[in-house]
Design brief:
46% strand; 125 residues; mainly beta
Length: 125
Amino acid sequence: MTGDDLLFSSITKINGENVTFRDNSKGKIISVGNIGGKSSPLIENVFLINSLKHNLFSIIQLCYKGYKIVFYHACCFILENDKVIYVGNRKGNAYKIKINACMRIQICLISNINNSFFYIEDYVI
């Protein structure tokens, strides 16, 4: 779900249902479309919500699409065919991902030393 119609590579207007948020405020689904494409992986069937101020993507929707998501305390990695395509940095209880920028990894991001995992957040967007 997003409130930003500029993120879509294709979009179709619909007369959708209302969505209720945590604070019991409501938003209406006004369109559905795809985000990404040429320079970043395609995420399909994303809803455009008229009053949404943040972009929210469903973990299960990404998993059904075939992506693998690995969470750590400070970040998460979204992988496609074991290649990191997005890195999300944790902010409070959410992980922020720059969805319109595809990752070009320059270094190894995860190392396993004596069953302890270390990650490096040095990457290029």
